[in-house]
Amino acid sequence: MLLSASPDLYVPRIGQTLGFERTLCTEIEWQDERLDGRLKTPNRRGEEKLHCLTWLREQYPGSPVIAYGNSASDLDHLRHADRALLVNGNNAARRLAAKWNIAVSYWG
Description:
The protein is α/β, with parallel strands linked by helices and 108 residues long. The chain has helices at 11-18, 47-59, 75-79, 91-99; strands spanning 2-7, 23-26, 28-31, 34-39, 66-69, 83-87, 103-105. Strands 5-6-7 form a three-stranded parallel sheet.
């Protein structure tokens, strides 16, 4: 499962290319063939990403959750993953990650 706050303009295609079974991301509204500027779902960011992770655990009971994020807004769901990694987070996010025993990495 690929979970992203990014929009469904491209995330499902990335998930498919990478071989993910399902993709859950922020969905946007269309009016005919045009974007109308509204979201169809909540933005899958911060606390909403944690709600999605909780739902996914219900859908896939017993499956391990391995997650990564790159900002402080990802720490809520990273804290609830079985294995987590904060990548390229800023100083504040790295400090919080250390406090919650979340691994940190820098990808240059």
